[in-house]
Design brief:
Strand content: 35-45%
Number of domains: 4
CATH topology of the largest domain: Immunoglobulin-like
Helix content: under 10%
Largest sheet: 4 strands, mixed
CATH architecture of the largest domain: Sandwich
Number of strands: 25
Distance between the termini: 132 Å
CATH superfamily of the largest domain: Cadherins
Number of helices: 1
CATH class of the largest domain: Mainly Beta
Structural class: mainly beta
């Protein structure tokens, strides 16, 4: 009997035979007491009676899948004689149960850059029906292409695995629906939330926003020479950046109030005569383990100013000449040099 059979349905049972005649062969029937079934007698036009099983209340295979009853036939003789037959009722399944997920929301935390095919989480749904009606298959359901490009589900096991590279910097959380469908077409849904954990996969980036070069050598200390932007796409300690300078340039680095911008200022006076240009390397390191670094090279040209007077090769020249030296004769050659360059370093004598 199908479990969807409505109460009141009748099912003919086997009739009994008695070889006696008259009252001794007059048969009555009795059925084992059961709240789901009762017995009625259907009389045929020829006067014979057919026992019929009547369904008194709805069946539910998931609660009780079978019944064992006994049908007894009793004759009218004295003493009474009877015969019995076993009535075994199988309740056949109907697809009256949808799959049920063990959770309404499945959550997982996974690191970014997982290899394709890595297990993320496992969803599970059960169906109380039997046979194909209770066989559950899983799918992502109606999700955007961006989700199906990153995640895939095994139809039979419910294992959700990565199908593409995850990137925390692109998106840190995914929420989407999944569905379970049984063999009869009934569907249920659940939600999946996957949080992406940041890894230190980005090195700090240094961008030179402005650079003052060349710089006059008489520029006051404290003057801003360059403005930089230092940025790391990672989060937390992986994105916290510290900077340091290497090289002999008389510059120092100062962090701005915003934390991202760095300013290079002149720490001490410049001297073009000491060095015509200054080179330094700015190194930015994040707080990851292991740390990642980014570098930028900065070259500052020093412009000459007239800060040097000519200097004679000697402070005093002593010359002895005869009194009859011809007019126009060279008596002595004096030499002076100037540490400046260009016009500032060209020396004239008088």
């Amino acid at each position: 009997i199908d479990e969807w059979t409505l109460p009141g349905a009748r099912f003919p049972l086997q009739t009994a035979r008695d070889a006696d005649v008259g009252r001794n062969s007059l048969l009555t029937y009795h059925l084992t007491s059961n709240p789901s079934f009762s017995l009625v007698m259907k009389e045929s036009p020829d006067g014979s009676k057919q026992p019929e099983l009547v369904l008194d209340r709805a069946l539910d295979r998931e609660k009780q899948s079978s019944f064992e009853l006994v049908l007894t036939a009793v004759d009218g003789g004295d003493p009474v004689r009877s015969g019995t037959v076993q009535v075994h009722i199988n309740v056949t399944d109907a697809n009256d149960n949808s799959p049920v997920f063990s959770k309404s929301l499945y959550e997982a935390r996974v690191s970014e850059n997982l290899p394709a095919g890595s297990l993320v989480l496992h969803v599970q749904a059960t169906d109380a029906d039997a046979g194909t009606n209770g066989q559950v298959s899983y799918s992502l359901g109606n999700v955007p292409d961006a989700i199906s490009a990153l995640f895939a589900v095994d139809r039979e096991t419910g294992e959700v695995r990565t199908a593409g590279p995850l990137d925390f910097e692109e998106k840190s959380k995914y929420i989407f629906g999944m569905e379970a469908k049984d063999g009869g077409g009934l569907v249920s849904h659940c939600k999946v939330q996957i949080d992406i954990i940041d890894e230190n996969d980005n090195a700090p980036e240094i961008t030179i926003l402005s650079l003052s070069s060349p710089v006059p050598e008489d520029t006051p200390t404290g003057t801003v020479v360059a403005v930089l932007n230092v940025n790391d796409l990672d989060s937390g300690e992986n994105g916290q950046v510290s900077c340091e300078l290497s090289g002999e340039a008389p510059l120092s680095i100062v962090a701005s109030s915003g934390g991202s911008y760095k300013v290079l200022v002149l720490a001490k006076a410049l001297d073009r005569e000491e060095a015509a240009f200054r080179e330094l390397v700015l190194r930015a390191s994040d707080g990851g383990d292991p740390a990642r670094t980014g570098t930028a090279r900065i070259r500052v040209t020093v412009v000459d100013v007239n800060d040097n007077a000519p200097v004679f090769s000697q402070a005093e020249y002593t010359v002895r000449v005869p009194e009859d030296v011809p007019v126009g004769s060279t008596l002595v050659t004096v030499t002076a040099t100037d540490g400046d360059e260009g016009l500032n370093g060209q020396v004239k004598y008088s």
